[in-house]
Specification:
The protein is an alpha/beta fold and 186 residues long. The protein contains six helices and seven strands, in the order E-E-H-E-H-H-E-H-E-H-E-H-E. It starts with a strand and ends with a strand.
């Protein structure tokens, strides 16, 4: 996995919904890949987000789906353990974008002088995609780390989302910036 490295920009790693409720045998590999990323690259700030819905939410109404807050709506222990000594912001959200959670993420990132975000997590085609687009729209250089993202429901949805992001040069594997890339062995 190649990671864009820009030496003068403040960087944050945003971990989107890597929680037991969304993990399965097909996508579980992103935990190990994310741990390799955390152990190989230093970020100025780490953000972990978890998703859940409330009874009677728009999710339930329009999508006939819900995920109530329970013992499966937390970031997996392996990742929280790896981040225990880092500056970590924890956000709960009932929305797709991490910027619309229970903390003002935009303000937090700006106060920490963050100019670039790397995004990992689940679902590539949903919350990761929405968060990446919003990060870009808010003025952050944005890279989704492909090897650390997946869909909870289908490889096809993941592939489609990554293709959209690649088309806009918003993934680590589609970076067209003239910057150093660090190779991490998977």
């Amino acid at each position: 996995m190649k990671i864009p490295i820009h030496s003068t920009r403040g960087k944050a790693l945003i971990i989107v919904d890597i929680q037991p409720a969304f993990l399965n045998d097909r996508n579980n590999y992103i935990i190990d890949n994310t741990l390799k990323l955390i152990n190989s690259i230093h970020y100025d700030l780490y953000v972990e987000t978890v998703f859940y819905t409330k009874e009677g939410s728009l999710w339930e109404l329009q999508q006939k789906w819900s995920l109530l807050k329970d013992d499966k709506t937390h970031t997996v222990e392996q990742i929280t353990s790896a981040l225990k000594d880092q500056e970590l912001i924890s956000i709960e959200k009932e929305t797709k974008s991490v910027f619309k959670g229970n903390k003002p993420l935009f303000d937090i990132l700006k106060q920490a002088n963050i100019e670039e975000v790397h995004i990992v997590g689940v679902d590539s085609n949903d919350c990761v995609l929405a968060s990446a687009y919003e990060a870009f729209d808010l003025g952050f250089v944005t890279y989704v780390i492909e090897e650390c993202c997946q869909s909870s429901s289908s490889d096809e949805l993941h592939t489609s989302a990554i293709e959209l992001l690649r088309h806009q040069h918003m993934t680590n594997n589609s970076c067209i910036e003239d910057i150093e890339m660090k190779e991490i062995n998977l």
